[in-house]
Amino acid sequence: MKKIINNAADVEREMLEGLVAASPGKLVKLKNHNIVLRANLNKNKVALVSGGGSGHEPAHAGYVGFGMLDAAVAGSVFTSPTAGAILKAIETVANPRGVLCIVKNYTGDVLNFEIAIEKARSEGITVDYVIVADDVASQSTAVGRRGVAGTVLVHKIAGALAETGANLAQVKMIAQRTIDNVRSMGMAITPCTVPANGVPSFELSDKEMEIGIGIHGERGMRREQLTNADGITRKMLDRILSHLEYAGHEVVVMVNGMGGTPFMELCIVNNFIKDYLYRNGGIEVYDTMIGNYMTSIEMAGFSLTLLRLDDELKMYYDAAVDTFALKK
Amino acid sequence: MKKIINNAADVEREMLEGLVAASPGKLVKLKNHNIVLRANLNKNKVALVSGGGSGHEPAHAGYVGFGMLDAAVAGSVFTSPTAGAILKAIETVANPRGVLCIVKNYTGDVLNFEIAIEKARSEGITVDYVIVADDVASQSTAVGRRGVAGTVLVHKIAGALAETGANLAQVKMIAQRTIDNVRSMGMAITPCTVPANGVPSFELSDKEMEIGIGIHGERGMRREQLTNADGITRKMLDRILSHLEYAGHEVVVMVNGMGGTPFMELCIVNNFIKDYLYRNGGIEVYDTMIGNYMTSIEMAGFSLTLLRLDDELKMYYDAAVDTFALKK
Question: Fewest C-beta atoms under 10 Å: which of A293, B10, B79, B203?
Fold first, then answer.
């Protein structure tokens, strides 16, 4: 294992402390918990909590701030945070306007968030949740579509509405509408290494790629011969377009690096997308995000996310945001 | 070589087209040239031009926009743009207020920019330039300190002053003052592969690192045993601090990923910095940037940059900026 770390057991804490150190006056970390909060919590708005395993940086702590999350709770790398940690995050941001949890669709995450939410409710906290399920590659698995990079757009849009003073039902409704309109798919050309394991998550020859990966360093749904950027991108777009009716709509495109992918390659991928979408159903690209938004540590590869827009989603997508990883 | 590209010969053009496609109304690419411009050039301000070899993305095209550059000219990967291409960029943005070129200190870049500038002057264009030389590792080489990630801060600060309507001499002066106050150092744990070469730039065992790298995939000044993040960071900070008197000053810290480094590791590196600087000369961290700002394609590693601030540098560092890769 070749990494720039200290001890594998400390990566989650040190990473969050390093992020908070770069955000004085904006972010704080709860002592003895891997929970990052806005330094100045606004208790007059619905509070947004998200989280999950570490290893997806800048998700989720990088999205804490004005216009997005109020708190992010981080488990160990690729491991759900405990119900106790999630409860601590909910309790810390709780206010009479209520709390909305944004949960990615993984068995562990859903289970632990549900336990924490039940406990919080028993304490008299008003809290609800949504489950993000945007990964089309896992549609036919037992758990169903996993929650991947589309989660960042749910943070963005629900976060923007929450800042306006909307109530919990309204914020939940727009979060769910974002979820209903977002689909993603990912691929990788290298594995990644969980620090505590010390070995790569799989092996892959120089001529192969994994298609239909998630965000936990796992293999994809299929191993295929590595082809060129345009061919891979077309195949992934076709798959996404077959899962939701995008024709005639405007979309946000997110070209998301998995952590070790150079920006050069993400731009080359994006170069194919706009014309192809327009030729396939008159889909118009309203805005494009290119970067590392939801990663698998140092994995090389990318995911594509398409958010189908309506006027309201567009308005909250465009709204001001001030977090470490996303600013508008 | 394992990359998500089409043809190695097209990576520079396709990458710039992909970036421009993500920035409608903000960026344009000159047809038949790897030159990216603001879509709406403001000809009533000093125009800033930078550039160099490709492979450093998002530098430099990602920094074209309000508050930073007016044009970026890209050569082939790790190869200076031709004097002809640089001249074309200068001619395109030229206006009576003048043009300032921001050049990284490499023999090819300096030579080609100087030829282009001489030609532009012979055409009656008012144009001047500065040479960024922030890399302390190369201080004692024949060419002297190379220009590396500190260049982004020169773009930022000179770009902010240029927006105020300052004249060419003033913009050059603040660019030079930024250069005089910025130092960097880099390290790597993996090489990178130039697409047109197809093979890694060097080989390195699992237990080794290169200390004192530049940004062209080259080996560092020294090969050492890979130690832990805190130890590496301390060594690099010590080296930077020995090259400029930072004691008692406020600084901007940039923790720059080389392209393939996970955000997790950059945050772990940053976690060491603030306290260490304070204990070593009472250096106060005014702001911290963590991300991929000046890369070597997919190399894993990082560089540290410290900018020594005064009130004016601070003001222009803080000023609004709206580019693809940097927003405030």
Answer: B203
